[in-house]
Amino acid sequence: MQVFKFGGASVRDAQGVRNVAGIIQQQRPNNLLVVVSAMGETTNALEQLTWAYLRRQGDQELIWQRIRAYHEQIIRDLTNKPEAFEPVYSLFSEVETMLNQEPEPHQHPDKVYDHLVSYGELLSTRIVNAYLNQSGLDSYWVDARRLVRTDDSYREGKVDWEQTCEYITDTLADLLETGVAITQGFIGSTGEGYTTTLGRDGSDYTAAIFAHCLNAEGVTIWKDVPGVLNADPKWFDETVKIDQLTYQDAIELAYYGATVIHPKTIKPLQNKNIPLYVRSFLHPQETGTAIGQFEKHLPIPSFIFKMNQTLISLHPKDFSFIAEENLSKIFGQFAEYGVKINLMQNTAISFSVVVDHRPERLARLMPNLQEDFRISYNEGLELITIRHYDEKTIDRVLVNKKLLVEQKSRYTVQLVVKDL
């Protein structure tokens, strides 16, 4: 069996949904599991809705109405029989019921976040499923929250693999023999039934989870690019498509922030030697990039750009050395508040990290660090990672940039820069 994953860009409008349906219909109608992300920028909009709801801001209703109107327009553009999309309207009612209630006191905001933001995937999959059935292709809507079990690390749920694989195989093994199954990326639930998410852009990871548990023949991620490129075309000219990648190189690129693949995607596939394909939903006839057990490593330099980074430097107030005790305390607090470190560097009496600028998490972390450390930081920075670099590639990315931090290993260089 095969697993397909379609991201938000592929289903951002009615034409995108039709295109996805066409790709599915060109494949085998049975033994296919399709994982779908939220439509377009819906996850970002639902994030805004979550914070407006928690803070009881006046624009809460306006944000929600925009989200609802966006999905209703896609339905109108797809069909003149909206009754087939009744499950979508039931989801609208669920959200509106919640928004009309006061947030529970002392409820963790990340728990509320996961519950509300999950509706992006629930809405998109209901729409895709209904359209496929209208188009004459038998498809089944499957609730990923009933199958993917995690702990209660909201916004970064850790998968309980044993339970998850048991639920997935029991539910889907026979179902996939008779039709296509449509399910959600990014979401799961705790043992108590509370919705969790697997981290932003976690739908790739979901596809890998299902493939691992079902012993799939392969996973295809359908993107708006022709395959894995050596740089993001938004930030880099003259990109080159990479035809084949080893699992190791794919893991390295994902770890350093290559947006084409979620960092957790590769390992579940590598463990069972399941190939991963990255192909274009705009040109589905093209082969794209294959990731698997190949011998040759990355043939060209690859560039990864992470924007809106913050450089934080910690200095012990008692001028003690940065030793194991300090590092244990620092890492523990970063983990507790869910702040991922993208780069770290230390001297005898200072420790510096580069992190994504996430104000709500940093605001909770900083006061705790300030008890033991003096803190200085710079915002609005860029982290550039070059895999298989040389001096020419470094010089190329430093044009009109001021270099703040440089860190090199044998195959990788990381540069923290700001615009001149």
UniProtKB/TrEMBL annotation:
InterPro entries: AceGlu_kinase-like_sf (IPR036393), ACT-like_dom_sf (IPR045865), Asp/Glu/Uridylate_kinase (IPR001048), Asp_kin_monofn (IPR005260), Asp_kinase (IPR001341), AsparK_Bifunc_asparK/hSer_DH (IPR042199)
EC number: 2.7.2.4
UniProt keyword Kinase present: yes
Catalytic reaction list: L-aspartate + ATP = 4-phospho-L-aspartate + ADP
Pathway(s) it belongs to: Amino-acid biosynthesis; L-threonine biosynthesis; L-threonine from L-aspartate: step 1/5; Amino-acid biosynthesis; L-lysine biosynthesis via DAP pathway; (S)-tetrahydrodipicolinate from L-aspartate: step 1/4; Amino-acid biosynthesis; L-methionine biosynthesis via de novo pathway; L-homoserine from L-aspartate: step 1/3
Entry GO CC: cytosol
Binding locations of substrate: 43, 121
The UniProt record lists the keyword Transferase: yes
Binding site for ATP: 5-8
Keyword terms: Amino-acid biosynthesis, ATP-binding, Kinase, Nucleotide-binding, Transferase
GO MF term list: aspartate kinase activity; ATP binding
Tree of life domain: Bacteria
Protein's name according to its UniProt entry: Aspartokinase
Provenance organism: Larkinella knui
